[in-house]
Amino acid sequence: MKLTPEEIDRHVGAKLRFLRDAYGLSQSDLASKVGLTFQQIQKYEHGKNRISASKIWQFCGVFDVPPNEFFDGLDDDMLANQVSISRKVTETAQRLHQLENADIKDSMLELIQTLQMR
Questions:
Q1: N or C: which end of the chain has fewer CB within 10 A?
Q2: So where are the chain's domains?
Q3: For the domain bounded by 5-117, which CATH number is listed?
């Protein structure tokens, strides 16, 4: 099954929302960092508007990620599971961001990085 452009746009938009949530930014915060309105960020996140390559590049600078981060998990077999996985990861990132104790937050980040290396 080949992905439609609309499915790809929704996937990239979901990645944008995940990263924004993980960094604890509002749509308005992110919009101001890249010279957009929060409405445009909202349209991107819902896949209603396609994100240009130059905007993806700007988002990469904000989140310190490579461009391929927006396309990871896009293959046909993983697309069906992506939404539920993204929700779980987003919830985890939000909870981590809300931790007030900096030592605990740093320890959790180190644990996650260690697990990613395995």
A1: C
A2: 5-117
A3: 1.10.260.40
